[in-house]
Structures are given as structure tokens and as C-alpha cells.
Amino acid sequence: MRRVGEVRGRRKRSCTERSRTERREILGGAGRPVLEPLVHNPENGVTAGVRRVRRGERTAVLKVLTCRKEADGRWAATDDSRHWNYWRREAHVYESGLARHWQPYGIRAPRLLARVDRPDGDVALWLEDVPGEPATAWPLARHIEHARRLGAAHGAGEPACRLGVCASAVTYDWLTVLMPARTGEEQLDYGGAGTVSPELRYRERGKAFAFLADWAAEARALAPLLGFPEAPSGR
From its phi and psi, is residue 38 left (phi > 0), alpha (psi between -120 and 50) or beta? Predict the structure, then answer.
């Protein structure tokens, strides 16, 4: 009979060998690969890790999706495809070609090099390593231009683009719980020099609820027409 430590050791070696096989098939070449951890939200139960993998002159970004990672509260992974944190959502977006709908407007997602369904249930996404500057370092003018391109795609009437934008109201349904729960807290104004009056605070939050409700209603109407699962109604 095998000991527990031996079984775990075999499993670890098996996982390591599978990872090596993936790297050889995606990047080829010889030499020891270099793995560089990339910034992401480690609290999200969907993300097992994000790394840049370099082998010789070739690079790729490896993102591993999982539903086995322990996470608390709203960051927990789910099998419900209607939920904002559905753990396979990103894989489906890349495979379906949905991300390409924004390309005519100057917004391009990394190319999916390979998707690997691992024996442990995780999904490995091997993505094009795109050079560039993270949005956290963009000047205001670049954010404005990016918003203009998103608006152009949204306003062009492309159903998939419109669904993608409107569905964001459904993915942020946690706001409907968070905002009322914090109604008694003081809110700083946009400059941070003072606080927002209760009258303005409640009026702005009411407008936010109405805005989310309109977009959520449109997303629920569009989703089944495009072959997606019906979004939750919240009732």
C-alpha cells in the first residue's frame, strides 16, 4: 500500500511534468524556462495564478483558472454561468471569439495561443504576451480615448458589444447590497477636501441604482437572443 506522502509526491511530479509538456508545446525551444509572476487579485477564487513564461526568445502569459481555490465572500468561484465570478467565464470569452468584436474600434484582446483542460480540473489559458503600459499608468487623455472607443463600439449597435457593456450591470450586482449597507458613512468629495452632503449622496446612489437597473434589463433581453444563458433577475 502506498503511503500518503508517496502519493502526493507522485501527483506533484505528474503536475510538474504536465506543465513542462505545455511549455514545450507552446514555446518550443530549449533551455530552462523563466517564470515571472504578474500582478493580479490573489483573493479571487477563480485565479490560481498569472505568470509570464519565457523560454529563449519566446514568451507567453499563462493564466490558470480554477474552482478549487478557497476564497471568502464575493471572491468565491462558482459554477453558475450567470454569476459575475463564474470560474470558466474568461475561457469562454476567448474561445467564443467574443473579445474580437471590439477590434474594429481599436480595442484588441491578447490572442489565445492554447487552452488546456488539466486533469485536476483547472483550465490553463496560454495567451499572447502583449507589450504595453498598464492602465494604472495611463494619463487622463488615454483613459478618455479608451472610453471613446468603448462608447463607439457600444453605440454602433453591435449586439455582442452592447451585451458586454450592459452585462457589467449584472456583474456588479454586489453594489446593490454594499451601497445601502454603507448609507450612514461619510463620503469624501472628489477632491478629498470635504465630505458629500447626505442629500447629494442619496441622490447620486439613487441614480446609480436606476442606471444599473436599465442596463441589467437590457442585458437580460439580449442574452438569450445571442445564445447566452438568461441573466439572473435578482428576484
Answer: beta
* pLDDT tens figures, 139-185: 999 999 998 998 888 777 678 778 877 777 666 666 666 667 666 77
**Phi, psi (5° rounding) for residue 232?**
-65, 145
- Is residue 189 within 8 A of residue 133, CB to CB? The reply is no
Residues 6+ apart with CB under 8 A from 74: 85, 174
Domains of the chain: 31-127 (3.30.200), 157-225 (no CATH)
* Predicted confidence (pLDDT) per residue in 41-73, tens digit: 999 999 999 999 999 889 999 999 999 999 988
Instruction: Name residues whose C-beta falls within 8 Å of residue 143's C-beta, 6 or more positions apart in sequence.
Output: 135
231, three cell numbers? 441573466
Cα(95)–Cα(77) distance, rounded to whole angstroms?
A: 20
Give 90-99 pLDDT, tens digit per residue: 999 899 888 8
**118 neighbors 18 (Cβ within 8 angstroms):** yes
Q: Which class for 15: exposed (0-12), middle (13-18), buried (19 or more C-beta within 10 A)?
A: middle
Strand ranges, E, within the chain: 34-37, 47-55, 58-65, 112-117, 123-127
Position 80 pLDDT exceeds 90 = no
Q: What amino acid is encoded at 92 in this protein?
A: H
Q: How many CA atoms lie within 13 A of 153 on its CB side?
A: 23
